[in-house]
From TrEMBL:
Bilayer topology term: Multi-pass membrane protein
Protein name: ATPase
Family matches, as NCBIfam families: ATPase-IB_hvy, ATPase_P-type
GO MF, one annotated term: ATPase-coupled monoatomic cation transmembrane transporter activity
Amino acid sequence: MDCQVIHSTEGRLRIRVPWIADNSEYTDKLNWLLESLNFVTSIRINPAARSLIVTYETHLVSETIAEAELLDRIQRFGNADGSTDLILPETKPLDRPQVNEWEQLGLPAVALGLALVAAPLEIPPLIIGAAIASAAVPWFSRATESLVVNRQPNVDLLDSLWMTFHTLNGQFVAPSLKTALVGVRRTLRGMSGEEKERQFQQLLNGSQQLVWVERDGQEQQIAYREVAVGDRVIVYPGDVIPVDGQILQGTALIDERHLTGEPQPVVATAGEDVCASARLLEGKLCIQAKRTGYNTRVGLAFQLLQAEPVYDTQIGTQQAEFAKSAVVPTIFLGASIFALTGTYGPAITPFQLDFGSGIQIAMPTAFLGALTAAARHGVYIRSGRVLELLAQVDTIVFDRTGTLTQGNAVVAVHTTDPSISPTEVLKLAATAEASLNHPVATAIVYAAETQGIQLLECETWDYFAGMGIACQIDGQEILVGGDRLLQQHHVDVSCLQPEIDASTDSYIYVAKNGQVIGAIFYTDFLRPESADIIATLQQLQIEIYVVTEDNPKVANAVATQLGMTPNCVHAHATSQNKAELVQALCHHGKTVAFVGDGINEAAALSFADVSISFASSSDIEAETADVVLLDRDLAGIVEAIALAKRAMEIVYQNAAIVIVPNLAVVTGGIFFGLNPIVNVVTNNFTAFLAEFFNSTRPLLRTRRTRETREQGAEELQVQRGDYQLPITNYQLPMMKKLAQVET
């Protein structure tokens, strides 16, 4: 995928560069290269989000030219491996001064000031008009560029005409107030975005640069970025937890407000999960790191904030298309009103209808707020379009193994003849399955290792998705798989039929040189929450289907355990069957989500409208699923759907907040001559309300129960060496006393 612009505002471009990596030399060179362009004022590169932000001088270059020049230079510069055909400047240019957001309000402020004192000071209209025109240059530039480059009018043309006609009519306050209020909104938006990025970066890096870890039985300090998955991290009172992980030892009071928004501290004890950015108020914890850096919840939220993946939504596209198509009819409407009334005050009033700016800005704000909130609560949703589809999901297909089940199967070996050792059967099966990262394969290999069985080597190895493995071990032809695999190879399995008929467990056969030598029965128990989650989703009027590679008897047992009808649980499901089921549901107009581990479900995941999987500890952003559950808890699906529906509610509320009042004042301007200042104030106030208030409301609460917190607070004991301090009523941390004891 080539680099591309993923977001643009006046004087600012955010460019996605897939090959940006944590390569400081490459980053410095790319930074120097782009800063050498005379119109560029600053460059900020974020390797983790694989993007960069460029600010540029709008009076020197148009957005189209700036975008084309930057993309051309980045493409010619080459990949992060250092391959480039472009000569870099020998010296780095002088650092440019930081752009002061408030300085951009200079011209609008001057224009508004002159307009307010024009009458008492008898300022010549030409001067005031020139000031307003200077402040309105961005509108004129965008309108002209759209007409010349894109050969179509845009909403900026309506704004430009509105300001021009009012200025020519001697109504200076309304157009100058418009430039000032829009400038204030843009400035506050930029400052808010920068502040959010700064806060996330601070939380991501931790308040301390050094972290205590336990290695080889000794506590030692290492750099924050050197902490690895599996490390035992020690956290003391006042420290920020630097990783997502599970508490191994200790009980503590922690503050999670920066992550979940929950204002009250919570009690955390051994066995519970904690997340990076939470601050320890009391106690001492030993935490095993599961995710570090940009793979933590706060790290993923920061990457979403940087990448802003919210401009691919269908509702956004529809709004943009409507705004474009409404420009010409609005101009004709104004012309018609002028022809009927002979006055252009009411005639140009429709030009101020907020077709674009308020909704166009408030919608992405709501989507981005929802995406970052989801990441902080343990659900990584890849983009605004995925969030939009998630709110529409009416059918979910679950793969049983490793998704509805715990993924730690218990195995038992049956042989076809007493002369055949169960150890031999297990050794052959484990050798064949060792290359697979599947819950059943993992369980078989683990059982072999537990018994001290030394695995062999496969001379040849073929995997048949959803059926099993055919391989050669020590010159012997080995088959490890289900009924269909052995039927394909014409192997008789009737000798094990009595054991299979008597069992409700799942099983796979092991055959050698065309003869069955045994079967491995395995039980992968359902997750404790599976039945409740299925019931909750059904209460939300969502159809549920389960697919399994097991036989119908096991499938019926699963249906009973989950409280589902047998016709909704599909047995003997191959990868192709799963994909066909998803395609059939989509063909019938369903919005389908598929939940699977991605091993045998690649096709089904790709055909589903929304693909959902559990996270590994590796690079979560690189995983292919649309929705990644950071915790291995199916409750994340319910929360993700609830959050998506709530986010869409806010989007529609934003549209109503902007459209209804603006339509009212425009109607008042046409029929009752309402002062255009009222129009301007209403337009900007509603946009401000939608963007800065309604779009930023909390969407989720922490999953930790209030009962746990209240009960644990009375029982919590802080242990530092031999000292114990009971905590009651969530008092502020007694840091001085603890420090004295430690000393």
